[in-house]
Model the fold of this input.
Amino acid sequence: MSHLRVQSFGISLDGFGAGARQDLENPLGVRGPEIMEWFFPTRVFQKMYGDKEGETGADNAMAERGFEGVGAWILGRNMFGPVRGPWPDEEWKGWWGDEPPYHVPVFVLTHHARPPLRMKGGTIFHFVTEGIHSALEQAKAAANGADVRLGGGVVTIRQFLQAKLVDSMHLAVRPILLGEGEELWHGLDMRALGYEVTELVPGERAMHLFISRRA
Ligand SMILES: NC(=O)c1ccc[n+]([C@@H]2O[C@H](COP(=O)([O-])OP(=O)(O)OC[C@H]3O[C@@H](n4cnc5c(N)ncnc54)[C@H](OP(=O)(O)O)[C@@H]3O)[C@@H](O)[C@H]2O)c1
Done:
């Protein structure tokens, strides 16, 4: 059965998944990269964008897990890029260059329609304006029995949690206090929604927590 999984989602100890004031210079918001400092040194990240071998410890193993068995992704429009409001043109093609790291269909939630965007290496961005249920239905169909990874950002994950659609969630909790930004937990009663912590794995730069929905 195909599951909806959040993987490798970084949060600060005070619950922020992105810093404040996202823009072209600050894709993760101001001080947002501190949330992902566990990921940057890993072999997974270095193979994608870096010029180093990359580390192969527990953080890397957690990052690897996030790509296993994934047949499609769902993202929010802010994770896809800094453009807000109606698309002025079709110039913006995501943060990731000609060959994004997805290699499968990616469904981007937005209120602003746009034709699909085919990239090198198998990634196709589909822009979904009909909401989260439609995005999930389309992603599951595209995944063809494999899992769907819910990439983020915060606004997007919160909606899927509230609708009890997330089957499992891996959070990389960084021991930092961000103070401001996009807050994951605000107003969400995870216990009442049926979630529980099922696994804890200490990493080199983050504590990895796994949360699942009770059957
Ligand atoms: N910590 C991590 O591991 C991690 C992972 C991924 C991303 N991030 C960061 O998170 C930040 C983005 O998160 P975010 O919370 O600001 O935004 P987001 O969830 O990426 O995107 C929110 C936007 O998506 C569109 N959208 C969401 N739900 C929709 C729906 N049901 N129907 C139609 N459109 C919908 C809306 O855009 P429009 O109305 O403008 O179309 C909305 O403003 C970025 O800084 C990114 O780098 C962090």
In short: The pocket of NAP is lined by residues 9-10, 17-18, 22, 27-29, 32, 35, 76-79, 84, 109-112, 131-132, 151-156, 159, 182 (CB under 6 Å).
